[in-house]
Amino acid sequence: MEEDIISEIAAAEAQGAQKKADAAQRAAALLSEAEKDAAERGRLSELDCAMLRAEKTKEAEGKAEREYSDAIASCRASSKKYADECVAHADVYVAEIVGRLVK
User: Fold this and answer.
1) Distance between CA atoms of 35 and 27, rounded to whole angstroms?
2) What letter would DSSP give residue 51?
3) Torsion of CA 50, 52, 56, 62, to 10 degrees
């Protein structure tokens, strides 16, 4: 009877050791798979970030170009208005200068 109990204990210990070894092997496999998944997610995240950076850079360049064009147009209009005012009043100054020279 004691031998049966001892053999059952030994068998249970062996079974426990085998389950522990199987669990360690399964844990290692899961860890390896998780590391592969994390690496792939990291690669995809980098790709997403690069695409987003390129998209936002293009948007910013477009916005800057529009703002630059608007500023140029505004300055051009202001300069034209100033030049037109100068030309409109130039006759008075020309007549005064010519009058002085003729005297």
Assistant:
1) 12
2) H
3) 90
Query: What are the structure tokens assigned to 99, written together?
Result: 């009058």
From CA 2, how far away is CA 14, in angstroms rounded? 18
In the 8-state DSSP scheme, what is residue 103? -
d(CA 53, CA 55): 5
pLDDT digits (tens, 9 = 90+) for 41-88: 999 999 999 999 999 999 999 999 999 999 999 999 999 999 999 888
Could you tell me the two tokens for 33? 């798979």
- The H or E element spanning position 50 is helix 2-102
Amino acid, single-letter form, for residue 13: E
Q: Which residues are CB-contacts of 33 (< 8 A; sequence separation ≥ 6)?
A: none
pTM of the shown model: 0.54
